[in-house]
Amino acid sequence: MKIVALSGSIVGSKTKTAMLKTVDMFKQKYPEHEITLLDLADYKVEFSDGRNYFEYEGDTKYVAETIMAADAIIIGTPVFQASIPATLKNIFDLLPVNAFREKVVSIVVTAGTAKHYLMVEQQLKPVLAYMKAHIVPTYVFIEEKDFLRKEIVNDDILFRLERLVEDTVMTADAFEAIRKKKDEEYDF
């Protein structure tokens, strides 16, 4: 299974810290799966201009094609101005409407306060649903107080990240089994 961990911001350290921890957990628990970390801070991604994702070049093409080739995606995002960052929205704009069809998507959110937890429910999940994602229902919400010196110090958050890793793989496996069963119904 190909899994992409997408760190959806080009500034700050908390989302990247959370995604690095998540990737480490994946590698420890599921070494048989291929996991790729796409930290948008490491790439120069063009603004979407309406072209098909495969018509872009360089980093933009690499990021879009890597996401499109994934079986599961873990999106890490901070909350900026009670919304997702423009860099993450640009990724969604670069991809086709059905980009997440038959893909499992799970979410890790970092925020300054608990007041922003509804951003996931009101903004991010509707976009992912529109793009046909199989969304893992629970997500991990990490506040400023859960970090110390670029480390997650809250054991409950670490436990929830582990659970998210498991839920992502189990959900992807379940949907793969459903797809296979459905395909077997056809006689050709």
What features would you describe in this structure?
- The protein is of the alpha/beta class.
- Helix content is 43%, strand content 20%.
- Strands 1, 2, 3, 4, 5 and 6 form a six-stranded parallel beta sheet that branches. It has a two-stranded antiparallel ribbon with strand order 7-8.
- Helix 1 crosses helix 5.
- The mean pLDDT is 96.
Concise synopsis of the structure shown:
The protein has helices at residues 14-29, 58-69, 86-94, 118-130, 155-184, and strands at residues 2-7, 34-39, 72-78, 104-111, 134-135, 140-143, 147-148, 151-152. It is an alpha/beta fold. Strands 1, 2, 3, 4, 5 and 6 form a six-stranded parallel sheet that branches. Strands 7-8 form a two-stranded antiparallel ribbon.
Helical run tally: 5
Q: The CATH topology is what? A: Rossmann fold
CATH first level: Alpha Beta
- Structural class of the helices, strands and pairings? alpha/beta
What is the CA-CA span between the terminal residues?
26 Å
Give the amount of beta strand, in percent: 15-25%
Largest sheet, in brief, is: 6 strands, parallel
What is the tally of beta strands? 8
